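Entry, Tuesday afternoon. Goal for today is a structural model of the target with zinc ion bound, before we commit to ordering more compound. Inputs were pasted exactly as handed over by J.K., no edits. I checked the ligand SMILES twice against the vendor sheet because last time a stereocentre got dropped in transcription.
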Amino acid sequence: MTELLYMEDIEANYIEGVEGDVERAGDDYVVLNRSAFYPEGGGQPSDTGVLEWKNSSADVVKVEKKGDVIHRLDGPIPEKGTEVKGEIDWDKRYAHMKLHTAQHLFSAILYEDYGGETAGNQIYTDYSRIDFEPVDLSEEDIIDVEKKVNARIKEAHPVNIYEEDRDELEEKLEEDRVQLSLLPDSIDVLRVVDIDGLDICPCAGTHVKNTEEIGSVKITKVENKGKDRQRLYYQLK
Ligand SMILES: [Zn+2]
């Protein structure tokens, strides 16, 4: 099992590079004992970057969770037992962190003020989209949502990551903001992303440690996706 460093706590989300050993090598991938790379999942894209060892290196083009965490490489493949150093493309990862924390803020505001549940989301490097239902936001509402999210960003709320028992979390959470019932029964302990107690949400993604790091966001487009369902697109400003 690969130790995924960013899982530990919020500080660990800022690890840009780390040394590890190749545990298994395939035709175009390696499995490491330890990694700072985020594997694609939960609406957040994979990190990319580079692996270096001895006098060689290869680009990490994608990281996927397929039982093991697979680092797909473009270049030579280091053999089992090789000590490698992995470096993440930091600008891209940091953008994902900002956009992901912003997504939690959007989801919280939409839920609190409009009763909209988050029905899906996808982060890209330049923008993100979130689906909400049931909502029917007017143009005025959109302006209001953007204002409220930017106000929370500016209030500089600390973000924390910790583990919590599922039962305790169930008591703490508002019923529809997060649908814990959708998670498999086998999961008893959840990694929680807590924005200063304002929003508490189980999530395995990477986040900034203070909302002010996001800067500000702009809603660029709203699409109707059938009855009572809308898709919001936003970018960092
Ligand atoms: Zn999340």
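The chain has a mean pLDDT of 95.
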